């Protein structure tokens, strides 16, 4: 009787050189200098941060470079309670943050506030790593924390949910 | 059948390495140019379909990010094939046959520069018994070329002649990548890359993108003075196992050509997607092209070979000659898989 074969090993390894592209490079280079830089769509005037080269709504090449604020409004969020391989201990909050001057929400962590106090409309600001540790990576921003300002009006972010 | 035509075509010049722009940034200007030339408003386009490969990009669902380049808001009807854009064009043609829309945008993109394309092509082979041996793309093509030589109808000089003609033609094509060195004896003096293939008989490694706009009936007539009407289009595939195929002929290309109607009237021009020189000889026979036919006036895939794009470029180049009034009937061909496994043939005419 022949042996039943239930699996074979076929190791596959391919290496790639990643090209972030002009728009992402511009954004990441900005982050490495502690700045948040987006681009404006010449057709609908929306500011995308981070920009990816084309306006996803209009399909045209993005133009003017725009530096946006480092503070913004939580449009929506979730509380992570499940432990897996993450570096921070649950529970913690991930949020969509609409930076002042931007038209697309950014995704980041919310810290320095108990998870149950985080809410839509809450005003938050970026907390960066030490200047010597800045690099072209989203990890240059440690997290966002509440500014203590009054909550933003729902109408000011309802288009970005 | 509804009459459907190519009404515009755009491509970016193929380059060995597009080190600055990512895929979206490459596609954006090409798509914008094809739409602009079509005379059809972006929001008027009824269907959008693309061809690309995640293996080239090295990331899953890479085509989803590419959608940024077409402006998918308000939401559009969209589809994607993990194949050369020529097959995306086939899907668009079928979609236009439904009769409820009158235009379609087809685009394709491929960056071969991020990885080792010669190796990654092995992953399209039988994953159990062939791919683990990592036969590279050039070696498999050489196997086919050797079989063709052994059949006795062609010589290595014939391979060099194909390459020489392609390079000479490519001098007039600003989008091609290889133009120099068309002296046949000099080409035959090159060392083998994988015997019997020398460098000139192998394609360059290319990054590129292309887009085509299709329109049906009155829409095509309204926006284009001489639409390239698709008279027939068909694609056929052969078994995956190389050992069961006769590599010296292409029954799938022959059948696709017959169904597309290549022989139903002479063609002035044929754009054949032959990444390797000997494959052009096999295809010429399979399509039954007469001696006077201008083959690959663009220079062909030997002079610019962006993977997932080069087949769509063949259709675009052939169509452009009809649109420009330089030809009246053209055949375009695209291939996929190792050693011409799968083939698509499209016949276009200016005649209504
Ligand atoms: Zn826009």
Question: Which tags fit this structure?
Answer:
heterodimer; A: 161 residues; mainly beta; 3-stranded antiparallel β-sheet; B: 352 residues; alpha/beta; Peroxisomal Thiolase, Chain A, domain 1; 2 domains; two-stranded antiparallel sheet; 12 helices; 12 strands; 34% helix; binds zinc ion
Descriptive report:
The complex is a heterodimer of chains A (161) and B (352). Chain A is mainly β and 161 residues long. Chain A has one domain (22-160). Helices cover 7% and strands 27% of the residues of chain A. Chain A is built from one helix and eight strands. Chain A has one helix spanning 21-32, and strands at 37-40, 47-48, 65-67, 71-80, 92-99, 106-110, 123-128, 141-146. In chain A, strands 6-5-4-7-8 form a five-stranded antiparallel β-sheet, with no helix packed on it. Chain A has a three-stranded antiparallel β-sheet with strand order 2-1-3, with helices on one face. The longest helix of chain A has 12 residues, at 21-32. The radius of gyration of chain A is 20 Å and the shape is globular. The N and C termini of chain A lie far apart (63 Å). The mean pLDDT of chain A is 93. With 352 residues, chain B is of the alpha/beta class. Chain B has two domains: 4-116 and 205-228, Peroxisomal Thiolase, Chain A, domain 1 (3-Layer(aba) Sandwich), CATH 3.40.47.10; 131-201 and 231-349, Thiolase/Chalcone synthase (Peroxisomal Thiolase, Chain A, domain 1). Chain B has twelve helices and twelve strands. In chain B, the strands form two sheets. A ten-stranded mixed β-sheet of chain B has the order 3-2-4-7-1-8-12-11-9-10, with helices on both faces. A two-stranded antiparallel ribbon of chain B has the order 5-6. Chain B is globular. The model of chain B has no long low-confidence stretch (mean pLDDT 96). Chains A and B meet through helix 1 of A and helix 1 of B.
């Amino acid at each position: 009787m022949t042996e039943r074969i239930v699996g074979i090993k076929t190791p596959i390894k391919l290496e790639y050189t990643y090209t972030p592209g002009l728009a992402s490079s511009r954004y990441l280079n900005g982050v490495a200098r502690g700045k948040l830089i987006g681009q404006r769509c010449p057709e609908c005037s929306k500011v995308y941060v981070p920009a990816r080269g084309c306006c996803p709504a209009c399909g045209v090449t993005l133009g003017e470079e725009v530096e946006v604020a480092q503070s913004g409004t939580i449009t929506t969020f979730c509380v992570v309670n499940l432990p897996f391989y993450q570096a921070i201990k649950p529970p913690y909050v991930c949020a969509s943050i609409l930076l002042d001057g931007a038209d697309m929400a950014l995704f980041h962590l919310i810290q320095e506030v108990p998870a149950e106090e985080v809410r839509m409309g809450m005003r938050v600001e970026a907390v960066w790593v030490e200047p010597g540790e800045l690099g072209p990576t989203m990890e240059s921003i440690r997290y966002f924390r509440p500014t203590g300002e009054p909550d933003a009006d729902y109408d000011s972010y309802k288009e970005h949910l | 059948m509804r009459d459907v035509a190519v009404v515009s075509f755009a491509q970016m010049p193929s380059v060995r390495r597009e080190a600055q722009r990512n895929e979206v940034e490459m596609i954006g200007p090409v798509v914008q140019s094809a739409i602009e030339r079509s005379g059809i408003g972006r929001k008027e386009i009824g269907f959008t379909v693309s061809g690309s490969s995640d293996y080239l990009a090295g990331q899953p669902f890479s085509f989803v990010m590419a959608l940024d380049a077409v402006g998918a808001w308000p939401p559009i009807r969209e589809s994607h094939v993990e194949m050369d854009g020529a097959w995306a064009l086939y899907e668009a043609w079928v979609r236009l046959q439904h009769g409820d829309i009158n235009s379609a945008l087809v685009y394709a993109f491929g960056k071969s520069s991020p990885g080792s394309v010669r190796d990654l092509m092995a992953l399209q082979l039988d994953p159990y018994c062939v791919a683990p041996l990592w036969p590279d793309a050039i070696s498999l093509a050489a196997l086919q070329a050797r079989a063709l030589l052994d059949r006795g109808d062609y010589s290595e000089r014939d391979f060099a002649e194909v390459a020489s003609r392609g390079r000479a033609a490519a001098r007039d094509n600003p989008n091609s990548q290889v133009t120099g060195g068309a002296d046949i004896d000099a080409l035959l003096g090159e060392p083998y890359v994988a015997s019997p293939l020398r460098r000139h008989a192998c394609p360059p490694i290319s990054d590129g993108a292309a887009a085509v706009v299709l329109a049906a009936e009155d829409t095509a007539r309204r926006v284009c003075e001489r639409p390239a009407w698709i008279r027939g289009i068909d694609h056929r595939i052969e078994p995956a196992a190389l050992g069961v195929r006769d590599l010296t002929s292409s029954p799938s290309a022959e059948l696709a050509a017959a169904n597309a109607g290549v022989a139903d009237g002479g063609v002035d021009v044929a754009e054949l997607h032959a990444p390797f020189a000997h494959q052009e000889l096999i295809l010429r026979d399979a399509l039954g092209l007469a001696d006077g036919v201008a083959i690959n006036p663009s220079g062909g895939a030997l002079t610019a070979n962006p993977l997932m794009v080069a087949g769509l470029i063949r259709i675009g180049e052939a169509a452009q000659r009809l649109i420009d009034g330089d030809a009246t009937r053209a055949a375009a061909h695209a291939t996929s898989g190792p050693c011409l496994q799968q083939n698509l043939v499209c016949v276009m005419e200016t005649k209504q």
